[in-house]
């Protein structure tokens, strides 16, 4: 099964990855290649990371700062800060924003419980090396190009990575925020609704498994990952079956708006 998050959430997560940390985890091969290098080069990269951290404010006074706040708050599962950096202009966008909040807080709860149960190292199969990924993401954000429109109310942040779309931010009441409308760009109303429902279902599964982790049901993080994969697959399969049994309903594509799955690795 796909381990990508739902479409709407995946776009938001990509923005967070562009600024500081990524929920859209690297593949196991890429992670295996990157971790040894990060471990051996840690002393040499600390000054660079410190300089990068100082270069971007931890507030919404600049476009890059807003993306950093978004990434930090999503990684921490800080619902209030996530809401504060998102800009929703209508009811539909508000639902999308709440879907992001729900997914981020559920994942943070799962990670916290896994670290509490298995220790930081033991939880790695579920959490990955977030500190190393945060440092790498921050340095990418420093290297990005920030362009503010002549109006002063809209800006783009373009990463040096080829093929990655620029992140758009807007200024609202003096603060830079991420417009939720960007999540729906190029998507139909049905696709957006599908993504919201998938995110809600995924978050529900994460919270259920997080509670079981806290209760001591699993011996290792690998067991948690397997249980999560299985639960999400069951959710997606049941949802597809329900959709096909509705009168006049067309069979949904696998994974709905971008693929269901366990939280990205």
What does this structure look like?
The protein has helices at residues 7-19, 28-55, 63-76, 79-85, 91-122, 124-127, 130-143, 189-214, 221-245, and strands spanning 86-87, 145-148, 154-158, 167-172, 175-179. The protein is an alpha+beta fold and 265 residues long. The chain has one domain (7-245). The chain has a 5-stranded mixed β-sheet. α2 (28-55) packs across α7 (130-143) and α8 (189-214) runs antiparallel to α9. The protein starts with 6 loop residues before the first helix and ends in a 20-residue tail after the last helix.
List the helices and strands and how they pair.
Blueprint: H1 7-19, H2 28-55, H3 63-76, H4 79-85, E1 86-87, H5 91-122, H6 124-127, H7 130-143, E2 145-148, E3 154-158, E4 167-172, E5 175-179, H8 189-214, H9 221-245
Parallel strand pairs: 1-5
Antiparallel strand pairs: 2-3, 3-4, 4-5
Helix pairs in contact: 1-3, 2-7, 3-4, 5-8, 8-9
Descriptors:
disordered C terminus, 62% helix, 5 strands, 265 residues, five-stranded mixed beta sheet, alpha+beta, globular
In short:
This protein has 265 residues and is α+β, with helices and mostly antiparallel strands. It has nine helices and five strands. The radius of gyration is 19 Å and the shape is globular.
